[in-house]
Fold this protein.
Amino acid sequence: MYSLTPGYRVPAIQRGLSPTEVVLTKINAGAGAAIMASAMLQQPPAWAFGAVAGIAGLINIAPGPRSIARWATVGARLWRERTTPNVAASTGTTRTWTLYPHHGTMQEPYVRAAFHEAFAKALTFTAGQARSAGIQVHVTHHATAGDYTTHTQTISVHIPKGLVGYPERVIGTIEGEFAALGVLTPVTPEPVPDVCDRAATWAAFEDGSHAATARITAWPSETDGDLMPRLLLGRSDDRTTDRSLAVLYRPLPAAQSRRSAKWQSAAAGAFTTDQVKKDADEMASGTTHGALVQGDCLVDVDAYLTVWGDSREAVMDARWDAALIADRHRIQLDWLTGQQQRAHVMTTPHGAATRKGAIL
């Protein structure tokens, strides 16, 4: 259904390109092809090749988790943004529930595997409800650690306006799918807290809390079975830390999944020179092909982690602890420098209505 191995459609976790960058890359590739074709008739000026190569470098060369162009965009936003933009203001229908799996689901390996399989089927069903991509499923998990740890889990579905004719009917059918996962209760999410102070690496809210949010840009295949307790409970030697984890799923319809797999397979074979990497991509492509034959779908995945503290020093300490745990489990975190004033929205149910590419 979905995986983090090469060949799957996970642009957020494997860095990938934003929709704007995809369009610019296609335009630039078309211009480069036209220049190469015109060379058969008349030699183009040298600056034309330099312009195409320069634009391609800005868009596609990635020093770290972002391309050069995206680094420049983030730097511009650091100076430009002085208010808190509402990144979750897209129109459409959104429904949120609290989800509590049946007792012992996460402790029993076989029951947990069945839960993940049922969730995968629910995402596949969700993808089949629209002819074009757009339905988003957003899952959050909040762990408030004190004398005892309180867990809150929500699942939200957002259908953009105009995507389907009767969104309430689609919401109702999707709700029936998720109801099989555990106790599902409709809720109205609390408003997003207002930001009263901000810095490049943290944000402060009116209730006195401070937060720092990171985007998960790499996820390991093996976690030794203790990833969630370490990552979410956040217990240190002499203190506790609140954490929020959210995953945004964008399931693709069947036809678009097949097209995406076809073009990704063709691109991997045409532009990969490393034979070992090519073999790895072919294995992933074969697995993808088998999943699509069985009726599964491809899913875009965005994952975010927020750590909380009572002061800026406390949240920076919590961020350091989270970085150490992430290193322990081979997780890569991008702390979204300059975007903390809106990044925390992604670990709330309101992140379900976020446009793709809003967080770079």
Remarks:
- The radius of gyration is 22 Å.
- The beta strands are 92-101, 136-144, 150-160, 182-187, 195-198, 203-205, 210-218, 243-251, 299-309, 332-334.
